[in-house]
Write a structure and sequence with these properties.
Radius of gyration: 24 Å
Distance between the termini: 32 Å
Oligomer: single chain
Number of helices: 16
Strand order of the largest sheet: 2-9-6-7
């Protein structure tokens, strides 16, 4: 239960400003503490004054397609935080044309406005140009003549801005934010030089993120072309005949589940088995190909705990999640070794689910995060097959469909322990493998650089505001 702080009691004037809302959240959250600090700043302007538009798209009939020729990638309220946008669902172009407010543009600030995650903030980056975006996301369009867009995003996404954004959430089971709720948020003006420097850092971060996305896609494309199977880059899974009325022979007690023998998957496996390859189990012998260790979660604060990354958060640009207390020995047991491929290995078979999608642990992720036991750890035991090379393969649509076909279990699916070891991995040549792996590593260095640039922007803002508020 939240109660008002004694040093900032709720005042009658606050109720009037909030339209006499009688729910406690706007008054006892950190929003008013943040507003108090910002009000001490010499110059502020409201969000409505520095933007040309604050809007959402409105409801639209979501007609889906599986063909890139007839669809546009669609960003849901969770998708705007995804690091890799290559596996988005496709909204039909006809549905897109019916609502001109659906497309988004780089440089806009995006705020989730519905559901339990209402109030989270993201920056529309280069790869989002022209994509359709859900009505559950507010678009905040900076007026470039009044404020740099990167600076506006930095403030709204900062520890000062987020409480004010979330403080205006209303509702119970389904929470919401409307444009008029955030229009009165005060934005500190810290001087043109500092604002433009922060904007430059955000733009540089956005460019680095684009190099990251381009890099991992290029590595996968290079792998399949070097292996002589470029046709598997575009599987067109849903354009193929459905997996019905088929038979198999030579079954063993290892599995009798029909999903594990579907013809569409068999065709992919046949192509991979027809070229020089090694099995995943063979490559990981001496390394690891198993789920993570289970461990107790003891909640902690940011100063003493370590950040736990679950399956959903692992795919975000900047993983968020609870912090837990762990000893150094416990952390070593659940942290990821450098160049570990982490595959979401528990979940359901929905097209938009992360089950069987991989992420790559390297760089800052090695020291900063621990990972839940629900990730399948793929660690190469063969120095000639690096983790970076394996990731370039496992992130492909072909590998995803193979992994999905190996599902076992009931409501929560898992990846069959024995079948996953038999997945054929293209060999390519040693020089090919080294080149592909280096492309992945360079992409993740760009990602770490993007995070550093963004952190610098947040620090510049925080220092400027607190210095002026003394």
């Amino acid at each position: 239960m939240k109660i008002a702080a004694l040093d900032t009691p709720v005042r009658a004037s606050w109720l009037a400003k909030k339209g006499f809302r009688l729910d406690a959240k706007p008054y006892v959250s950190r929003a008013y503490d943040a507003r108090t600090l910002i009000q001490e700043y010499p110059r502020t302007e409201t969000l409505g004054e520095v933007t040309s538009r604050i809007f959402h798209a409105g409801r639209v009939t979501r007609s889906w397609t599986t063909s890139p020729d007839f669809g546009v990638p669609f960003l849901g309220s969770a998708d705007i935080f995804q690091a890799d946008l290559t596996s988005l669902q496709l909204l039909t172009r006809s549905a897109m044309k019916k609502n001109p407010k659906l497309p988004i543009e780089p440089g806009w600030t995006l705020i989730t406005r519905s559901g339990m995650t209402a109030g989270r903030v993201a920056y529309a980056r280069l790869s989002m140009q022209g994509l359709a975006c859900s009505e559950d996301v507010l678009r905040v369009v900076a007026d470039g003549d009044k404020i740099p867009p990167g600076y506006l995003y930095t403030f709204l996404a900062s520890p000062l801005g987020i409480p004010m954004v979330k403080g205006d959430v209303y509702g119970t089971s389904v929470r919401h934010i409307e444009p008029e709720h955030v229009a009165e948020i005060p934005i500190p003006r810290i001087g043109k030089a500092k604002e433009h420097r922060i904007d430059e850092l955000i733009q540089e971060s956005m460019e680095s993120r684009q190099r990251f996305e381009d890099g991992v896609c290029a590595a996968t494309r290079d792998l399949f072309e070097s292996a002589g199977i470029p046709d598997l880059l575009d599987v067109r899974w849903h354009d193929q005949p459905r997996d019905i009325d088929f038979s198999v022979s030579g079954l063993t007690p290892m599995t009798i589940r029909a999903l594990n023998f579907t013809p569409r998957t068999r065709r992919i496996l046949s192509r991979l088995s027809g070229i020089p390859h090694r099995t995943l189990g063979d490559i990981c012998r001496g390394g690891r190909l198993a789920r993570g260790n289970r461990f107790k979660r003891v909640e902690s604060d940011s100063e003493n705990g370590v950040q736990l990354v679950g399956q959903r958060q692992g795919f975000w640009l900047r993983p968020e999640g609870r912090r837990i207390l762990m000893s150094e020995a416990e952390q070593r047991a659940v942290k990821a070794a450098n160049e570990t491929v982490l595959i979401a290995s528990q979940g359901t078979l929905g097209e938009g689910e992360v089950f069987c999608r991989p992420v790559f642990a390297t760089g800052s992720w090695i020291d900063n995060y621990v990972f839940s036991e629900h990730f399948l750890r793929v660690v190469s035991g063969d120095p000639e097959f690096s983790g970076a090379y394996l990731f370039a393969f496992l992130r492909s649509e072909a590998a995803f469909r193979i992994l999905r076909s190996l599902a076992t279990g009931g409501k929560q699916q898992d990846i069959h322990e024995m079948l996953r070891a038999e997945i054929p991995v293209p060999e390519c040549t040693q020089s090919d493998r080294e080149r592909i792996a280096e492309t992945v590593r360079a992409a993740y260095r760009d990602r770490d650089e993007a995070d550093k640039k963004e952190d610098q922007a947040f620090k510049l803002l925080d220092d400027a505001v607190r210095e002026a508020a003394r």
